[in-house]
């Protein structure tokens, strides 16, 4: 039996589509009730922990800590008690605008970093624990995410609905490492790496403007430049790039994804 958290979210739903073993679904709404009532830990073979408040603009630090830190640590304690392997979602947001250096820019990133630090200090206690610092994940099933959807999906939705993409001024300088959600699932489920915390991106960032140009060319729409929002200044990652040294995997590019969909 597998436990999957965050099953009301975009990425966890793709894990559900892939696995064939029986699983227990845990959402944010029933997270703590699950911990209080579940009593079959001895039957669990793997925990896939994807649940979190993932908004990078969330300012309620109490809610962020409640779900992203406290719940995660309690879940991990059960895993330690019953020697259950864990694969969990961290985030490239811990790097801020640096490459490979820790510099979180928002409260969400700080909560992810707190868990990573706990894991690093306790690796030896787990039979297997792998944290994956997801970069900018995109793919099918993002429509419900609104402003938190990837630019790949958000731009496509905008142009289909209005004929225009709203693009922040200066987006030719904003580079992100976009990684296809089904590649994320494959790497997480089917790797043979030891316990540790790993980057999960492509290692080949492209600019937001390039993504907008690709979508506009495919859908036949226009790009409208809009001012960069004040509330994102100083809290916005302008560059992300995964360290994929030693990773032997053929990731789908944004260009390939748009041509095939």
Compile the SSE list and pairings:
Elements: E1 2-5, H1 10-18, E2 23-26, H2 31-37, E3 46-49, H3 61-82, E4 86-91, H4 107-122, E5 129-134, E6 136-138, H5 151-162, E7 164-168, E8 175-176, E9 178-180, H6 181-189, E10 196-200, E11 206-207, H7 208-219, E12 222-226, H8 254-260
Helix pairs in contact: 3-4, 5-7, 7-8
How would you portray this structure in words?
With 261 residues, this protein is α/β, with parallel strands linked by helices. It folds into two domains: 2-137 and 179-200, 3-Layer(aba) Sandwich (Rossmann fold); 139-175 and 204-260, UDP-galactose 4-epimerase, domain 1. Helix content is 36%, strand content 19%. It is built from eight helices and twelve strands. It has a six-stranded parallel sheet, sandwiched between helices. A two-stranded parallel sheet has the order 6-9. Strands 7-12 form a two-stranded parallel sheet. Helix 4 (107-122) links the parallel strand 4 (86-91) and strand 5 (129-134). Helix 3 packs parallel to helix 4 (107-122), helix 5 (151-162) packs parallel to helix 7 (208-219) and helix 7 (208-219) runs parallel beside helix 8 (254-260). The radius of gyration is 19 Å and the shape is globular. It starts with a strand and ends with a helix.
Report, as a whole number of angstroms, the end-to-end distance.
Answer: 34 Å
If classified by CATH, what would the architecture of the largest domain be?
Answer: 3-Layer(aba) Sandwich
Mean pLDDT: 92
How many helical elements?
Answer: 8
């Amino acid at each position: 039996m597998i436990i999957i958290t965050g099953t009301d979210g975009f990425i966890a739903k793709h894990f559900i589509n892939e696995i064939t073993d029986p699983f227990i679904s845990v959402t944010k709404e029933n997270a703590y009730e699950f911990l209080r009532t579940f009593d079959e830990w001895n039957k669990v073979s793997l925990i896939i922990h994807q649940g979190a408040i993932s908004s990078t603009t969330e300012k309620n630090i109490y809610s962020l800590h409640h779900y992203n830190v406290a719940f995660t640590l309690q879940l991990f304690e059960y895993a330690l008690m019953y020697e259950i392997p864990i694969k969990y979602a961290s985030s490239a947001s811990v790097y801020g605008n640096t490459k490979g250096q820790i510099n979180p820019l928002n409260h969400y990133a700080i909560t992810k970093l707190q868990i990573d630090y706990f894991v690093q200090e306790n690796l030896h206690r787990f039979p297997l624990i792998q944290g994956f610092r997801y970069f900018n994940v995109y793919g099918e099933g993002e429509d419900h995410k609104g402003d938190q959807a990837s630019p790949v999906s958000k731009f496509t939705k905008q142009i289909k609905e209005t004929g225009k993409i709203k693009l922040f001024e200066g987006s030719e300088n904003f580079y992100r490492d976009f990684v296809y959600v089904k590649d994320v699932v494959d790497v997480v489920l089917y790797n043979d790496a030891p316990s540790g915390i790993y980057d999960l991106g492509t290692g080949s960032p492209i600019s937001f403007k390039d993504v907008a140009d690709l979508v506009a060319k495919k859908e036949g729409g226009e790009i409208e430049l809009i001012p960069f929002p004040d509330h994102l200044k100083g809290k916005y990652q302008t560059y992300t790039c995964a360290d994929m040294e030693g990773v032997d995997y053929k990731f789908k590019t944004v260009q390939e994804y748009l041509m095939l969909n």
